[in-house]
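JOB MANIFEST
job_type = single_chain_structure
chain_count = 1
residues = 86
[input]
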Amino acid sequence: MRFDYDPETDSLYIELNPGRKRNPGGTQEVVGWGGHDIVIDVDGEGIPVGIDIDSFASRIADITKLEVQGPLFGLVRSGDSERRVS
C-alpha cells in the first residue's frame, strides 16, 4: 500500500497495490454519509485499486500513523446499521 496525504486539502489517497498493472476501463464507486464521500477506484476487471478521502481525511483517520485496522472493503457502517458494498 502507498499513502499520499495532502495537508492543504486534508485529502488522503490510498493506493492498494502500487506495483500491480491497472486494467483500462475502470470506474469509481462512491460511498459516504452526510456530504462526506469516499471514492473507491476500481480497475477494468472490477478490482479495487485505490481509495480517495477528500477534504476530511484527518477526521476519520490518524494521519500521523497511517495504520489500517479491520477490513478495507465489503462493509460500510452508517450509525448503528451495516450494509454490504459490492
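[summary]
The chain has one domain: 2-84.
The beta strands are 2-6, 11-15, 27-33, 36-42, 48-53, 75-78, 81-84.
exit_status = 0
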